[in-house]
Design brief:
The complex is a heterodimer. By secondary structure, chain A is α/β, with parallel strands linked by helices. Chain A has twelve helices and twelve strands. Chain A folds into two domains: 2-222, Rossmann fold, CATH 3.40.50.300; 246-333, no CATH class. Helices cover 34% and strands 24% of the residues of chain A. In chain A, strand 7 (175-179), helix 8 and strand 8 (207-212) form a beta-alpha-beta unit. Chain A is globular. The N and C termini of chain A lie far apart (55 Å). By secondary structure, chain B is an alpha/beta fold. In chain B, helix 3 packs parallel to helix 5, helix 4 (138-151) packs across helix 5 (168-180) and helix 5 runs parallel beside helix 6 (198-215). The longest helix of chain B has 18 residues, at 198-215. Classes of the chains: A alpha/beta, B alpha/beta. At the A-B interface, helix 7, helix 8, helix 9, helix 10 and helix 11 of A face helix 6, helix 7, helix 9 and helix 10 of B.
Chain lengths: 338, 356
């Protein structure tokens, strides 16, 4: 069953310097219990998309210019703010990157979770306290009774992120939007949090949209992947398909640039140049100035996200077979260091 | 990178300790001693890259700064070309400083926002008297800075820009140009690519390896990212709570780490290969890193170690050879593979969790 449908969502920031087209025709669906990874570099629009789904962008400068976000049968973009508040943190929850800034520093963590529960469920104060303690226990915090009385600054980074997850999951959301939830953490804490997310998702059937720039994490947790570049989805595929046969040169380049994929001592295949300035997007395909396979026609038309094989779409004018040949050629050309 | 192990040492660190004192003060908090670096011995050989790996709070950045003489050590010595930099007279220290430079993690806070790139890169040249300070030397400064910027892949004309006009990757290139200005022998790289996007990370890693090849530079590469070290380092020291717990050649370390902490660190790093990830069993450490102001007794890893025994909390293990002089580990019960840890008592609170 599909729980979230994003249909041709567009929007941008209206700034004195011009309009930044942060989201350009983004469409995807999320099924119950599914995990989708949203991948891209900083500035590609990942976080802008999450905030747009939650209607958390300050307006102005942000304005939607089209599209729909269908969740539980309703278009979120048309809801009154009151109704939206019930959904936010209720059936549609978020976890952000930095648990130090997303938690309230002057409230105990127990009180924060209890507050969230009280806003979304008709329960008494003492019931909400109990719910908070059990939520802390569920995310693997030892001695949840005592920890509920702690302030965020008294906890480690990994522990704070557990608290943020406990708060997000306390109201049993259907969908969890997790924006770089482990980026601020060390690898061993990241491993703990990832295991926890998988476990809780399995237990409650929560669907997850995980925003990350870490392709290792994507391989570890995602079922499907959305690749974003300059405000557009440029490739969507099942995780195995994407890693094995990327059909958008940007995705292929990202995979090639990983140190763990390169031969030791060989040069990495770096993507030349910088991510584009959204105020001055290049004509045609916005990746074309950095693309190793670009041709003259790439700067003429914007390629649409087109299904190339079942469940695998890419926004590139090159045919998959031709692209495969060219990728293979470049991969074998890279010579090791003397 | 292809240098042999008998390349002469450029930098040696002997019994190095650094204790920071916190608390006391007006708020009348309890005084605490933070053992940031707690007895480290290391050798960095000429033309090689020593990787220092560890998580936040393990003391790797403090160690990097001690190596450069940016902090005075509490005890122990830092020998650069055989000279103890803590005991050098000021004049001589300035000479040594020319030979050792640092590149910082955050290219946003490590460049002065009110200085132009030209001034940032030329500052050290002027300080060390290599170019004049005044207007008359302006042309020479421009030329020298232009060459440096071009060598790191920027345009000579970028010298008139301010850091805010540059992207993260470009700023990091400025940081590298600044470090190279004095033609140093040693470059300490403190998380030089961690703040950058993957595509830009690859550009900067390529630049660093090219610079090393062309100039015969010696690197100390500090990072939490093991996949970067696997690519660039000749040997790796893994730190935990102020100590080196394992040291080996890079390939050896990634093939058969002996310390349970190294094993769990390697196991925690996700591999960008979905099929491999699914079949992988992961060692997930329990609990958090203990505080360096309240170190556990004995082996400081014993509180989280899946295979700790009684001896581990009583006695601190020394760094000992593991089958050869080039592989050291500080563990009473070194493991042979991740399997040893995964086989350990699953189910008790101390034990490892695994993925299914």
């Amino acid at each position: 069953m599909t729980t979230l449908v994003v249909d041709d969502l567009s929007g941008g920031f209206h700034l004195p310097a011009g309009t930044v087209p942060a989201l350009d025709g983004v469409s995807f669906t999320l099924d119950e219990g599914e995990t989708i990874a949203l991948v891209g570099e900083s500035g590609s629009g990942k976080t802008a998309l999450i905030l747009a789904l939650m209607r958390l962008h300050p307006m102005p400068p942000f304005a939607y210019s089209g599209g729909k976000v269908l969740f539980e049968g309703r278009d979120l973009l048309g809801l009154p703010e009151r109704a939206m508040r019930q959904i936010r943190g209720g059936s549609l929850a978020t976890v952000f990157q930095d648990p130090m800034t997303s938690l309230n520093p002057v409230m105990t963590v127990g009180a924060q979770i209890a507050e969230a529960v009280r806003i979304h469920q008709r329960v008494s104060r003492s019931e909400s306290r109990r719910a908070a303690v059990s939520a802390l226990g569920e995310v693997g915090i030892a001695g949840p009774e005592a920890r509920a009385r702690a302030y965020p600054h008294q906890l480690s980074g990994g522990m704070r992120q557990r608290v943020a997850i406990a708060m997000a999951l306390a109201c049993r959301p259907a969908v969890l939007l997790a924006d770089e939830p482990t980026t601020a953490l060390d690898v061993t804490s990241q491993a703990q949090i990832v295991e926890l997310l998988k476990l809780l998702q399995h237990r409650h059937g929560t669907a997850v949209v995980l925003v990350t720039h870490d392709l290792g994490l994507v391989a570890q947790i995602a079922g499907r992947v959305l690749v974003m570049y300059a405000g557009r989805l440029v490739e969507t595929a099942g995780v195995d398909d994407l890693f094995a046969h990327p059909l958008m040169p940007y995705t292929w380049s990202l995979l090639q640039s990983l140190p763990s994929r390169a031969r030791r001592g060989a040069d990495l295949i770096a993507i030349p140049g910088q991510p584009p300035n959204l105020l001055q997007l290049p004509a045609g395909c916005s990746f074309s100035p950095r693309c190793p396979f670009a041709t003259a026609s790439c700067s003429e038309t914007v390629p649409l996200l087109t299904e190339r094989s079942p469940g695998h779409s890419a926004a590139c004018i090159l045919e998959p077979a031709e692209l495969g040949d060219r990728q293979h050629k470049l991969e074998t050309e890279v010579s090791p260091l003397p | 990178m292809t240098m042999t192990d008998d390349a002469p040492p450029l930098l040696e660190v002997r019994g190095l300790r650094k204790v920071f004192h916190t608390g006391g003060g007006l708020a009348n908090q309890a005084r605490r001693d933070v053992h940031a670096v707690n007895g480290v011995d290391l050798t960095v050989r000429q033309g090689q890259t020593l990787g220092i790996a560890g998580e936040s709070g393990c003391g790797k950045s403090t160690l990097a700064r001690l190596m450069l003489g940016l902090y005075p050590p509490t005890s122990g010595e830092v020998l650069f070309e055989g000279k103890d930099i803590a005991r050098l007279p000021r004049r001589e220290l300035l000479g040594v400083r020319r030979d050792m430079q640092i590149v910082f993690q955050d290219p946003y806070s490590s460049l002065d926002p009110r200085m132009r790139v030209r001034e940032i890169v030329a500052e050290a040249l002027v300080t060390h008297g290599l170019v004049g300070r005044g207007r008359r030397s302006l042309r020479m400064r421009r030329e020298r800075v232009g060459e440096l910027l071009e060598s790191v892949g920027l345009a000579a004309s970028d010298q008139d820009r301010f850091p805010r006009e540059l992207s993260g990757g470009q700023r990091q290139r400025v940081g590298i140009a600044r470090a190279l200005a004095l033609d140093p022998k040693l470059l300490v790289l403190d998380e030089p690519v961690s703040a950058l996007d993957v595509s830009i990370q690859a550009q900067v890693i390529n630049l660093l390896t090219r610079m090393q090849r062309e100039r015969g530079l010696t690197y100390v590469f500090v990072t939490h990212d093991l996949s970067v070290l696997q690519h660039v380092a000749d040997c790796v020291a893994v730190m935990y709570l102020g100590r080196v717990v394992e040291y080996a050649g890079t390939e050896e370390l990634f093939r058969q780490a002996r310390h349970p902490y190294t094993q769990s660190l390697l196991s925690a790093v996700p591999i960008p290969d979905p099929a491999l990830e699914r079949s992988r069993r992961r060692i997930v450490l329990q609990g958090d890193l203990p505080s360096p102001d309240n170190l556990p007794s004995g082996c400081s890893f014993h509180t989280r170690c899946p295979v700790a025994r009684e001896l581990c909390s009583a006695q601190t293990p020394d760094l000992e050879e593991q089958g050869g002089p080039d592989h050291l580990a500080a563990c009473h019960f070194p493991v042979r593979s991740a399997e040893d840890l995964l086989a350990a008592d699953v189910g008790t609170p101390q034990a490892v969790a695994t993925t299914d």
